Amino acid sequence: QVRLVESGGGLVQPGGSLRLSCAASGTISGVNAMGWFRQGPGKQRELVASITHTGIPTYADSVKGRFTISRDNAKNTVYLAMNSLKPEDTAVYYCKLDIQHIRIAPSGGYWGQGTQVTVSS
Q1: What is the Cβ-side half-sphere exposure of residue 54, based on CA atoms within 13 angstroms?
Q2: How large is the average pLDDT for residues 7-23?
Q3: What is the C-alpha separation between 94 and 52, in angstroms, rounded?
Q4: Are 90 and 40 contacting, i.e. CB atoms less than 8 angstroms apart?
Q5: DSSP per residue, 17-37
Q6: How many angstroms separate the CA atoms of 19 and 69, rounded?
Q7: How much is the mean pLDDT over the chain?
Q8: What is d(CA 90, CA 59) in angstroms, rounded to the nearest whole number?
Q9: Region 52-68: what's the mean pLDDT?
Q10: Cα–Cα distance, 74 to 86 (Å, whole number)
Q11: What is the pLDDT of residues 17-46, one digit of tens each?
């Protein structure tokens, strides 16, 4: 069984920064993709950023230049550094792991429980 545990969410003022972490445990082997999704109030869940097993990132247009995704394969952990946060970044952020996938998929796989990020003055 695979388990994902997120941490690092919280309340931050506009323009501030946060760093999310997601540690995966269980039977994880081979190539896998990891990513971060978010769901804001009244919105559908959307892909924020993803990273391949070899470290190639992709980003949603809305976060390019502000967010950075990275991973530590030895620790099965993915990170999301968020800078210049805006109120519209307020959402529950979920990490995702797709085993034996090169790229993240919008469904299936394994999900974390979510961590709340609130950007407000």
Answers
A1: 2
A2: 97
A3: 17
A4: yes
A5: -EEEEEEEESS--SSEEEEEE
A6: 10
A7: 95
A8: 17
A9: 96
A10: 32
A11: 999 999 999 988 778 999 999 999 999 999
